[in-house]
Amino acid sequence: xxxxxxxxxxxxxxxxxxxxxxxxxxxxxxxxxxxxxxxxxxxxxxxxxxxxxxxxxxxxxxxxxxxxxxxxxxxxxxxxxxxxxxxxxxxxxxxxxxxxxxxxxxxxxxxxxxxxxxxxxxxxxxxxxxxxxxxxxxxxxxxxxxxxxxxxxxxxxxxxxxxxxxxxxxxxxxxxxxxxxxxxxxxxxxxxxxxxxxxxxxxxxxxxxxxxxxxxxxxxxxxxxxxxxxxxxxxxxxxxxxxxxxxxxxxxxxxxxxxxxxxxxxxxxxxxxxxxxxxxxxxxxxxxxxxxxxxxxxxxxxxxxxxxxxxxxxxxxxxxxxxxxxxxxxxxxxxxxxxxxxxxxxxxxxxxxxxxxxxxxxxxxxxxxxxxxxxxxxxxxxxxxxxxxxxxxxxxxxxxxxx
Length: 403
Known about the structure:
It comes from Ectopseudomonas mendocina S5.2. Its main location: membrane. This is Nitrate transporter. It is found in: Endomembrane system. With 403 residues, the protein is of the alpha/beta class. Helices cover 39% and strands 16% of the residues. It is built from 18 helices and 14 strands. The radius of gyration is 20 Å and the shape is globular. It starts with 8 loop residues before the first helix and ends in a 16-residue tail after the last helix. Residues 398-403 have low confidence and may be disordered.
């Protein structure tokens, strides 16, 4: 490790002094995705032990299963979809709402929308071509995402709507766990999907279709996975939660530090206990090297990143609020929540600041401003108006949400 990877003496006191973890053995859930990297590295490469923690990793087969195990206490914390944490907080698709906590952001970028080979063969290789196909054919297309309130559902809906396709009226949407996307595509059960790596790259590698857009093309440096837990766990085990943040922060900093570290991490992820996918599918996009199956190759300006000097890891209030605006936009919420108040409850800003400061990691502001592909600006200043600002929406609808 480099010199700046060594924590300050007061950082070590979290583990060995009066702030020792209340719980030293943690069960942490993750999904088979490239963006689980910092959690896996923290657990397996000595970062957790430094803070008095032993992490037992538990790969989950679906986001719904991960959610249920978080709520039951079987998992202490997890690599989680942003929208999953907020969906549970707001009681969407669960018996009752449960107070949740986002300890830190795990990554930005690294998700894509793919279309099937049959659509590609029919010349549907752009948003405009897809819009024409959808509106000119009676047969409805079926798109897969990974969880009804998850990031992939919201990215898919946002992008389809930006192309003039209503995601709830013009196409069908189904939930498919990330590692199963390839088999569903092969079987012809879906016409496209939105998911994280390496599954979009693997589909292109196997000539099962094309990548139509990356999500970072829609929102550069968009929020993605988080380290999530119930708020009860964070409140009952603050030293443990702080130590866990510090371990994952150090792992994230290590991954982003060099191409060599990224390559070794990609190799680790490819193992059967973790992502269990060919290194050839993981490594290129992990390093920002894209090819879309349409003859285009590029080095992405906004690649999958885990730290970026702390810019990735701050649990920004505006990031959490954005997902709530989309829940409202698509009828998952019947009325506007108190966006800022909910985000202040969920985002563990003070705990994160303590952990980052102890590691000499800069903590950016609690809000950030972004320009999305359609030209809209999101800065968290007026979330209710933002939710109402879109031409395509389902604000008047209240469909049942089955998770």
